Amino acid sequence: MTDNATPGLARCLASLFYESLLIVAMLLITSAAITPLQLALGQDSWLLHSLIQLTAAGVLFAYFGYCWTRGGQTAAMKTWHIRLVTADGRLLNWQQSLMRFIVAAMLFVGLPVISYLGWQRSYGDHPAAKWLALVWWLLPFLARYYDKDRRHLHDRLSGTRLELLPKPPRGGK
After folding, report:
1. 160 three-state secondary structure
2. How many CB atoms lie under 10 A from the CB of residue 78?
3. Half-sphere exposure for 49 (CA within 13 Å, toward CB)
4. Angle 102-107-112 from CA coordinates, rounded to 5°
5. Phi first, then psi: what are they for 76, rounded to 5°?
6. N or C: which end of the chain has fewer CB within 10 A?
7. For the segment 35-88, what is each residue's pLDDT rounded down to a tens digit?
8. Global pTM exceeds 0.70
């Protein structure tokens, strides 16, 4: 295990915000590439909706998997000097990357959707149902405050951890 510290929550959230901007751009480009299929399959085709979802998930996993296995950092993580490694400090392989991707998807997408459907069934289309479902987004981040290694829940469940890298020395004149 290396001596690199764990990045703080503010740094992780800043990196996540930057990452979300990159993800939106990737998904917009992916959507534009798939748009011609709408003409062929029709607007309301279940096949089209399934294809769009699978393609989006595939593009996201290709991006994260490539970055995590090649250097442990996405573009946003490089900017914020954060690296993703296994619990024992090694770079992830593709199988570990897939595990983290699936765990994170279940925590950040699956749980809120299931929660929303449950709250909607109980309270109808009340705005509180949406907010109560979004509370699940806090769980992975708040887990770091009761985890002995200060890992987020998705890191603990997938056997990974984030480490804070030292800032590189500035090149001078």
Report:
1. strand
2. 15
3. 4
4. 130
5. -65, -40
6. C
7. 887 777 777 778 788 888 899 999 999 999 999 999 999 999 999 999 999 999
8. yes
